[in-house]
Structure formats: C-alpha cells, structure tokens
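Q: I'm writing up a methods section and want to include an example of the input and output format. Could you take the sequence below and give the corresponding predicted structure tokens, formatted cleanly so I can copy it straight into the document?
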Amino acid sequence: MGIKRASTFHNIRGAASFALGFTFAVTFVLISALAAAQEQAAPGQKARENESFMATVGRWFEEQTANARKKVESFGSAASDAAKTTVEGARDAADAVARIPTARAVSGHEKCLMAPNGAPDCVSAANTICKAKGFGSGKSVDMTTSEVCPAKVYLSGRSTGPECKTETFVSRALCQ
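A: Here is the clean output for your methods example:
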C-alpha cells in the first residue's frame, strides 16, 4: 500500500510539472502574438527594426499599465461624484426629517377645484384645511371621491346619469 501511494504522488507531481510547462509555453506564444499584433495595428509608427522581443513585451506592459492607471483615475472621479450626490441626498433627507416634528395630520372636508385639464386640483383644498387649523400650508394625504347627482335623477329611479358629476374632497392633510 505504501508503494502505491508513492507512485501516485510521483504521477501527480509529473502531471503538475507538465501542466506548468504547457501553461508557460502557451503564455509565451500568446504574448508574442499580442506584441506582433500591436506592431501591425499601429501602421503610422515607424517599425522598430532593432528592438528586441523583450523590449517589445516591456513596452506592451508599460502601455497596459498606463491604460489601467487611467481607468483607476476615472473610477476615482466617478466614485467622488457618487459620494457628493449621496451626501446631498442625505442632507435633503435630514432637512425633511427635521421638519417632521412641526408637521401634523389633520382631518377635514374640503372640495378640490377643477384644473383646466379636468383633473381635480387638491393643493388649495389641503392648504385651506391646514390654514383653518392654524397651520401655514399643507399637502393632501387622503382624498374622497363621490358622484353628486341632482335630486331629479334619484326621484326618477336612476342612480346615475349625464347630469351627475364626480367631485373630489380632501379628507386628511399633512400640515406644517
């Protein structure tokens, strides 16, 4: 049993040596191909006839390092912009939270006016409710919509008709 383990270890070590050598050979060929491709990719530059392979590889590594440095610098700029935006957002949120203690939700029943486009405009209704309770301004929190019909519609046995119209009311507002 001890002999079998030793021979297995020897076979694994031989396979690892072969894999390492193969990887080195493939890497060498790929670097050579990349260096040659970059030489051909820049036709505007003079071909460096006296430059050795190692000098070409060294120049290629310098160019890659410069490109990586530029990317890192631009990443730093983007991170700085994101941090500034986050700080501004946090400042705005802190301002909103600071105003909350002075805010209070109040109930009421104020009809919303109709805007020129036909939609209900409840901003003035919310402000009216808040001013009636002693606050300066407000925003609508809860609204109620109802269909209002003249009495003749109900007396005729109908529950709706062309004479009926929809009205919107602010029933709760957040006042400051």
